[in-house]
Design goal:
Number of helices: 16
CATH architecture of the largest domain: Orthogonal Bundle
Distance between the termini: 85 Å
CATH class of the largest domain: Mainly Alpha
Largest sheet: 3 strands, antiparallel
Mean pLDDT: 76
Order of helices and strands: EEEHHHHHHHHEEEHEEHHHHHHH
Radius of gyration: 32 Å
CATH superfamily of the largest domain: Intergrase catalytic core
Number of domains: 3
Strand order of the largest sheet: 1-2-3
Helix content: 40-55%
CATH topology of the largest domain: hpI Integrase, Chain A
Number of strands: 8
Strand content: 5-15%
Low-confidence stretches: 7-13, 20-28, 298-303, 375-395, 407-440
Amino acid sequence: MSTALDNVAVFPVPVEGEPQEEQPKKDRDNDGLHKRRGIWHTRVKVEGRWKELSLSTRNYQEARKERQRKIDEFEERLRLPDLAKLPFEKAAELWLGERKKLVAWNTYRIDKERLKPLEQKFRGKKLCEIASQDLRAYQLLRIEKVSPRTINLELKVMRQLLRTAHLWSRMVDDYKPLRENSKGPGRAMTPEQEANLFACAQKSLYLSAAFYAGIVAANTTMRGCELKGLQLRDVDLINRTLVVRRNSTKTDAGCRLIPLNNAAVWGVTRLLERAQLLKATDPEHYLFPSFRCRHTKEGHAAGSGYDPTKPMVSWRSGWRTLTSNAGLKGLRFHDLRHHSITRLAEAGVPEQTLMAIAGHVSKSMLEHYSHTSGCKPNVPQWMRWTRLTLSLQCSSRQQRSQQIARIRCSTTWQAASPHECPHEPATVHTFPTVARRHME
């Protein structure tokens, strides 16, 4: 007769003092891997302390393959010299070497230029010996030669270098940047100055790049870097628009679609003809082809002629010659952006529309670029421009084409330009179709 206790396993109770059999130890995992929040990690011992290294994968087999490589990279970093104990010029050289691999070429070039006056001041001094008093002394010495804005930008590079060497935290409370002029050096030209500038530009064939770029910048608010980054696919003469892409502008807001008035269409048409003469034919070719001899410092082979697969480096010499001939010595090319925004503001363009055209994200930045004279704006003149610009930002390609076609026929659209070029373009619609922008 079975009972309910027949299926219960009863284990013998060990007698006190009786030797027990040793349980076999569980085999340990010797692959050096462990999981944290689903990601495989490994550990490396540094000076008696364990350091966690993420393998950045959830797959076990990949983690086993990556483990040794990650450890080798970590040990290689440990063998690098301590920046804090190096002289300033040597630490700056190593920092720039890393910087070159991580940032865009233009950012690297600017950092290198801003380090030159710092190197003259701190040459031979170790980074760990630099204190906040030294930075203050640099400000007082440098202010006699350059603006506060320039000094703050130079010390910004110094701050990045000290932060990399883990030295910035000890002086961050004592450092104070110089007060900058909120309006900056930007200025807007008078109508007479503008007419004289572009009249002088038309007298010399060698100033064509700077001249046409100036015409477009003065009528579109575009930056110099945005103009140099334009490709043939970004130009649409049929719909009279330009596209500024993210890789050629400073901020996300700078990526925008810009309508073209008559003067801008004339300038862009001339630039397309110039680019075609310089062998720029593919949609990916640049509107301002590069002059090969200007790239010798970048490690490229020297040569002659133009390369349409690379953008133009600079038109600084041509611009300086142009402004000098026009009696406007000291006028920066970037001042054309100030000039265009000022004219749009004086014409009564609403702030939202003006920010969309200029690629600004704040009202304070808009005020920085605007140098209005306080006269009453002509609001009706810009009503259609406002509607067009706002609709271009949120419409499909077909809708944009229809809207531009309707407004282009209006006399208000023709009068919306703050600058009108005396020569109406004759080849706006006859330029090869490769110049048209193929929008996705």
